[in-house]
Amino acid sequence: MVDSKDKEGIEGYASVSVFERFRTLFDFSTIKDATNDFSDINKLGVGGFGVVYKGRLSNGQEIAVTRLSRNSTQGEVEFENEVALVAKLQHRNLVRMLGFCLEGKLLIYEFVPNKSLDYFLFDPIKRADLNWEKRYNIIEGIARGLLYLHEDSQFKIIHRDLKPGNILLDAKMNPKISDFGLAKLVEMEQTREKTKNVVGTIGYMAPEYAIKGRFSVKSDVYSFGVILLEILSVKKVNSFYHGKDSQNLLGYAWKLWQEGKGLEFIALY
Fold it and tell me: Which of 77, 103, 146, 193 could crosslink 9 through cysteines, CB 3.0-4.6 Å?
C-alpha cells in the first residue's frame, strides 16, 4: 500500500508535480463567474467534499464544480487524492474530470445532466423511467466501470464509497461512477488492506470493512451487490424493514431466495 502522511492518501503521487502535469488549471475567477458566484440557484447537491454547483463557461460548456467545504473532514490530502486519481482515469463509465483550481479547492467535472441514480431510483414517479432495459444497462455500466478500476486501469483502485448517490447518469442514462475522495490506490498484486479510519456509507460497506477496517476489491463488489438489490427492488437498503424481525433489504432478499420466492423481491416494471 502506498500511503500519505496520515496513512490515508497517496504519498508521492498526489503532489505538486501531478497538478503541474494535469491538463487544465482553472482560474478561480473563471469558475466564480461560471457558477454566478456559487449561487444557491446553481447548487446541485452535496458530495463527500462539499457543495456541488452547476456552471457554464464563457464558451457555453456546462460543468459541475465541487467546492471543498471548510467544515469537511476531508481536507487537502483527499483533495489531492481525487485530483491525482481521476486525472489518470479514462473510461466511459467514470465521471470525467476537466480540471481543478487550487484556490478555493475546486474540482471541475463534466456536467452529467440526469443527476444520480438515487434521484430516479427512489422517487415513486421518476423510477417509472427506469424500464428493464435501462436498469440492465445501468447495472452493466457500473460493473464495467468497477472492473476498470480494479483490473483494467494502470492502477488498482478501491472506491470504498460505491452507492447510488455516487452513480451519475448522462443524457442517455449511461452510468458514471463519481466521487473518488475516499478511494485507495493499492498494489496490483495486493488482495487486501486494512485501515483504522473506516469511511463510507452505512448499508453499503462490507461487514469485514465496517467492523475490522479490512477492504479489498471484494468490499467494492459487496457495495455493487447492494446497489444491484436496490435496482431490482427499487427500495433503499437503509430504509427498508420488513416483518416482525425488522429485516433489512439484504436479509429480506435472502429470506425470499431461500423460500424460492425470489420474484417477489423484484419490482416488475
Answer: 77
